[in-house]
Recover the amino acids of this structure.
């Protein structure tokens, strides 16, 4: 059953899925409730948290009627919980918000204004900044427009605000599959009518890119150039999980499956039912075939493993700090930093 706010319907529904988010949830809610655009509701879907998440949500809901709290009887997995927030919404505009990310106070106003000005835009977002556990922005190298990860020293490039901005549907589709590494546009303000024409998030790691590829065939993406969306890196972030842990995080059904097989099926299926020409569909199919070959090569080169080791530095930071102080080694006999060094050789 969909929620609707008391009184006139809100223009925007914000879906905020959360599981054990007590550390970052209050700050995320504070930033959303401080937005200069105020015609929205926040639908918090608690995935059976075992920490103080429920108490935090009850407190915010009692203070602001725009906060609506729903608790699942059991943990559905992250994918189902994300999709559930959309199913519980009703507004003509929809946005997902992660419980650990932040939005500067003009984010919604600027995004909604873009959508109001042009009916051909299906998604409005902003440029992205990377922040750490404490909300401090990563050092930024303006020469090559990358952020320097303070824990690993690696350079991280945010997804470009220009992704999906082409008037040509195939070019938008290609941009998403080739350039949307972080999937940041998933957290944009999206037209409900467009999002309803997608499969939402399928159940596999990286499914945000598949959904964005579908949206890209339905209309243009636009972003304001200012960095109003702050993506947080921290020890519990999902990209720091290995593939087995990530499967369990995304779904609790326990079913075994091939991530690559589901990915290929979603990418090839994205053009189906979309209002695009036969030529565009053929171009998309040909591009997906080449893209899948490229990702297969990356898998053989263990790119996923290298990325997981980068994430492990964030996951193990507290353990590392304690064990460095005691002169001990981390689990498996090696520190996260030494593992990182090995992968660079």
């Amino acid at each position: 059953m969909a929620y609707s706010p008391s009184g006139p319907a809100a223009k925007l529904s914000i879906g905020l899925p959360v599981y054990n988010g007590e550390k970052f949830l209050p700050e995320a809610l504070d930033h959303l409730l401080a937005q200069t655009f105020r015609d929205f509701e926040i639908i918090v879907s608690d995935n059976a948290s075992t920490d103080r998440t429920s108490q935090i949500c009850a407190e915010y809901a009692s203070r602001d009627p725009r906060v609506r709290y729903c608790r699942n009887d059991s943990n559905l997995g992250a994918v189902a919980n994300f999709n559930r927030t959309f199913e519980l919404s009703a507004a003509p505009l929809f946005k997902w918000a992660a419980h650990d990310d932040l939005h500067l106070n003009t984010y919604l106003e600027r995004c909604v204004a873009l959508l109001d000005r042009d009916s051909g835009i299906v998604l409005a977002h902003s440029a992205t900044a990377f922040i750490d556990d404490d909300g401090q922005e990563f050092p930024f190298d303006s020469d090559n427009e990358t952020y320097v990860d303070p824990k690993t020293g690696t350079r991280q490039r945010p997804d470009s605000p220009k992704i999906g901005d082409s008037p040509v549907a195939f070019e938008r589709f290609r941009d998403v599959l080739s350039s949307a590494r972080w999937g940041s546009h998933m957290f944009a303000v999206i037209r409900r009518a467009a999002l309803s024409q997608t499969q939402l998030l399928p159940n596999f790691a990286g499914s945000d890119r598949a959904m964005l590829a579908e949206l890209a065939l339905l209309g243009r993406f636009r972003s304001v150039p200012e960095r109003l969306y702050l993506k947080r890196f921290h020890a519990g972030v999902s990209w720091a999980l290995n593939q087995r842990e990530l499967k369990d995080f995304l779904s609790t059904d326990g079913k075994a499956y091939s991530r690559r097989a589901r990915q290929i099926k979603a990418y090839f299926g994205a053009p189906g039912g979309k209002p695009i020409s036969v030529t565009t569909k053929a171009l998309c199919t040909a591009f997906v075939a080449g893209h899948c070959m490229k990702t297969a090569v990356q898998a053989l080169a263990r790119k996923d493993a290298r990325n997981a080791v980068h994430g492990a530095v964030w996951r193990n930071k507290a353990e590392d700090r304690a064990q460095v102080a005691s002169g001990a080694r981390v689990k498996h006999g090696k520190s996260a930093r030494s593992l990182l060094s090995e992968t660079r050789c």
Remarks:
- The chain has 13 helices and eleven strands.
- The two ends are 54 Å apart (CA to CA).
- Residues 303-344 form one domain.
